[in-house]
Amino acid sequence: MAEEQKVNNAEYDSSNIKILEGLEAVRKRPGMYIGSTGVDGLHQLIWEIVDNSIDECMGGYATRVIVTQKKDGAIVVDDDGRGIPVDIHPKTKKSTVETVLTVLHAGGKFDNTSYKISGGLHGVGASCVNGLSKYMKVWVNRNYDTYFVEFRDGGHAVAPLKVIGKSETKVHGTTIEFVPDFTIMEKLPYEDDRIIARMKQLAFLNKGVKLVYINEKTDQKYTWLYEGGLNEYVAELNRDKDPLVPDIIYGEIRQKTKVPNVLEETYYDINVEVAFQYNKGYANSLYSFCNNINTTEGGTHEEGFRLALTKVINRAAVEKKLMKDTDDKLTKDDVTEGLVAILSIKHPNPQYEGQTKRKLGNTEVRQLVNSVTTQIFEKYLQENPNEAMMIIRKIMLAAEARKKSQEAREITRRKSPFETGGLPGKLADCSSRDSSICELYIVEGDSAGGSAKLGRNREFQAILPLRGKIINVEKAKTEKIFDNAEIQALITAIGIGVMPEIDMTKIRYNKIIIMTDADVDGAHIRTLMLTFFFRYMKPLIEQGHVFFARPPLFKYQAGKNVKYAYSDQELEDFKKEGANQRFTIQRYKGLGEMNPEQLWETTMDPTNRTIVKVTIADAIEADKQFSFLMGDDVAPRKDFIKTNAKFVKNIDA
Fold first, then answer.
1. Which residues pair with 515 in a beta bridge?
2. Catalytic residue among 216, 353, 446, 519
3. Catalytic residue flag (residue 181)
4. Mean pLDDT in the chain?
């Protein structure tokens, strides 16, 4: 970071800490501050502390962040930053450490000099975590002193801040340990995959910063340090996607930029990083961040990037006489086919559209990203003529495919969500027109489809039987995807269209439930459908409309007592419970083996069934997994199977 952004330790004190309001509301309405009291909120507690440490790294004051999950469930976050100020705050008359950790919205982020750039999705930081913790312990190292303070029962200091040690060397940093208050938070385990994915992501986005995660329960340690930053991020995402050209195109700019449409002249010191590479596939993977927050709904930075790509490619295609100036122009959808790109913006005053902080609205960012992307892309195409021809030809083929698939896309568009004239003939629709209660069961095969049609509640449950396995959209060309009859049936039945022209107001069913056999083929069909939804109807998953049905594996009957087992272990438990009784067991190898009454009772009745919601905790990690599982590169999958086959105990399951 530039030297002018730094604040010396002597200048970072109580005067930099601004107080906006108290902490009392956090325990009463935790969802307002961390999103939920469930698994998302539990992990958000970690990120609120980690974000403070990352802010120190972005400011140039820290080089590493270590997160430890202790055996007793405590979380410890340690950094080598400046350390929270320890002097007495002039307003609260308490140490600044206590003020920061007990007063909501009291922190250096609300001062104009302590942090020029700050992340944090909710912006309530450590005080919110303290308010929702059973206990929090804090160690601060500043100069040659180690300070300690402990809080209990939602943020009450056990005793004032005190010095507990001296150091012969000048050590600095902050260590925070906390345990969530499970009288407020749901008592759920931390998810290693989620923590690992986020910390790895933070390491990519903050080149040169060392991130460490230690799980003492499993005795595992993970370390990430990426000197290449976004270049290494793009390489990781493209690893299983067969790059079209070997080079990753990268650019970075840091510039004081005037803010438009304000009365007084204001300049922001904005940092922009762009990295992208084309592959031979058809899906695009464009991910953008502002101050380390994934802006999943895009915004002005993505607009500037797409505009630059489109302008540069059109100009290059004409210059190389691959198309005439009078031809139809290549579109932004054409130029992003097969593209993997990461945009990272560091902005001192980000403005977001809506409440979710998922769409960036700063207009000054659009031109800045456009400028740097244009500069680096034009330079690359001029200096690499062979690679330039490969990229342009691929994009022109994408344009041809777009035109061919346009007719198929038009078929899927409907005037209203409930206009039945264009619905697929195989769809057994429900009678209700209230989409908030309607459900669509996507069923494997005609046999299971027949049972489902007879067993369903016709008022709110619709059945769409699919023939065999749908096309693998990860490998297929766009026109082949939209020519596929099963894909057309899915799109038409759901009603929202496909990306990038999704209209969620036209959704016909609140729940879209994939119901397949509990075997390897059923799992493959689920994966194929999820791949299609992820690539072409991602908002369905993001907004929680996609589910898996969970049919039973066994019917257990002892006398007149009938039970259904969903796993081998559950069946063994039934046997133990009725050890002295004669019993019979029926193994369901497929949904078609169930009669309509059994299918309703076990898998479709809302009062008895078990359905699993499909979520995207990390869309970027999901992108990698879909490419790995469903892409063209077979070798990594073979290696994975060879390595993990020994762990599969029951091949049917």
1. 443
2. 519
3. no
4. 84
